[in-house]
Design brief:
Blueprint: H1 11-15, H2 20-26, E1 34-43, E2 46-51, E3 54-59, E4 74-78, E5 84-88, E6 94-98, E7 106-111, E8 115-121, H3 128-141, E9 144-150, H4 158-167, E10 173-176, H5 185-191, E11 195-199, H6 206-214, E12 239-242, E13 248-251, H7 266-270, H8 272-278, H9 295-301, H10 307-356
Parallel strand pairs: 8-9, 8-11, 9-10, 11-13
Antiparallel strand pairs: 1-2, 1-4, 2-3, 4-5, 6-7, 12-13
The structure holds guanosine-5'-triphosphate and zinc ion (ZN).
Length: 357
């Protein structure tokens, strides 16, 4: 046995996704009284963190910023009797949405994720725009999206449903599942990699699916209101669980309105079919409206591309551009405020010096 402080028992951390990348990221923070940990659940001013010696509650108030940590973050912890988070390690990926309150702030839904599972209920009609929006956020995170069609047992024709989903999710694996019959669960397990996060609207069956993958009822689930098929927002926290066969799963509360952040390049992945066509347009900066030799327009005319899909692409692009301009305004304001406070500090310092003379 070694007495080196760096020799930490890692079994509990490995279960929560510890690996070479994280070990490397933690190295600069390592110290005799510092341990690594992964944020499992976030509360106001506190969070639950999986550490080498088990999951503990830690204080996040030493950190600055509005939402200093989020579920999935790797952190450095100090203090055995009253543990506190002293640093957040750089994120390898982050699922970000634009704040619903229209402040220009963004909300990080989950960090350090490898797979984004988009839950789409087969008990409801396909909502293309919503799926594309979820895909935009997923691709933008840096992780790989997978669509899990849920509640296949409630659909008359799950295959047709899946085909309609595939049409708006080119290049994305679509797995048809039912937590009730357990159909498709093994295929979904095989599609997961590292840390997976499940997102989707309330009532889509995210928690039920997560429980089925976990093999235990670790997460409370809710009954869907019969009248409108809408969920009641059972899940309140984003919570990280370790999967029995390896890997990690984060369950999230239903996303009612999902504002996209500046997702620029991610839209090319979401609409890779259109992007592919656009490469063949006569003009490089073709807007696919009235230009001659527009391959996108030709595909619409030939019935190969749905006109409404092109329309939704434009809508998301506008929203993303608007978010991009908003965030550059925000950054400029932040800079101005920082400069203001620096000059305030400088004035205070000069006053102080003058008094010393
Ligand atoms: N028939 C059937 N019902 C399901 C299936 N999966 C989930 N449900 C039901 O759908 C309802 C909503 O499921 P939840 O897992 O709570 O949905 P959720 O997406 O986690 O909802 P929020 O926590 O509100 O975001 C519950 O009544 C589940 O029993 C399934 O595979 N088949
Ligand atoms: Zn064009």
């Amino acid at each position: 046995m070694s007495s080196s402080p760096k020799e930490i028992p890692l079994a509990h951390l490995i279960k929560h996704g510890w690996g070479d990348r994280v070990a490397h990221a933690f190295a600069p923070f390592a110290g005799p009284s510092t341990v690594p940990g992964r944020v499992v659940c976030v509360y106001r001013g506190q969070c639950d963190v999986a550490t080498p010696t088990g999951t503990i509650r830690a204080d996040t108030r030493p950190l600055t910023g509005a939402d200093p940590v989020c579920t999935g973050d790797w952190v450095a912890i100090e203090g055995a009797s009253s543990p506190r988070v002293v640093a957040v390690l750089p994120r390898s990926s982050a699922l970000v949405r634009s704040a619903a309150d229209r402040t220009s702030r963004h909300q990080v839904l989950a960090a350090n994720i490898d797979t984004v599972v988009i839950a789409v209920s087969a008990a409801m009609p396909v909502r293309s725009a919503r799926i594309e929006r979820l895909l935009a956020v997923a691709w933008d995170s840096g992780a790989t999206p997978v669509v899990a069609v849920t509640k296949a047992d409630l659909s008359d024709d799950p295959a047709a449903f899946a085909a309609a989903v595939c049409a708006v999710a080119p290049g994305v694996e679509v797995v048809v599942t039912s937590a009730t019959t357990t159909a498709g669960l093994d295929s979904l397990r095989a599609a997961l990699n590292g840390t997976a996060v499940v997102i989707g609207p309330s009532g889509a069956g995210k928690s039920t699916l997560a429980n089925a993958l976990l093999g235990v009822d670790a997460i409370a689930t809710g009954a869907v209101r019969a009248a409108d098929g809408k969920g009641r927002h059972t899940t309140v926290h984003r919570e990280l669980h370790s999967l029995p066969g390896g890997g990690v799963l984060i369950d999230t509360p239903g996303l009612r309105a999902l504002g996209i952040a500046d997702v620029g390049a991610a839209l090319e992945s979401v609409f890779s079919d259109i992007d592919e066509l656009a490469r063949r347009c006569g003009f490089r900066n073709c807007t696919h409206r009235t230009e001659p030799g527009c391959a996108v327009g030709e595909a619409v005319d030939a019935g190969q591309l749905a006109a409404d899909r092109l329309q939704r692409y434009r809508t998301l692009q506008r929203e993303s551009d608007w978010e991009a301009s908003r965030s550059s305004v925000r950054k400029a304001t932040e800079r101005k405020n920082r400069d203001k406070s620096i000059s305030r500090d400088q004035r205070a310092m000069y006053r102080f010096r003058n008094r010393q003379r």
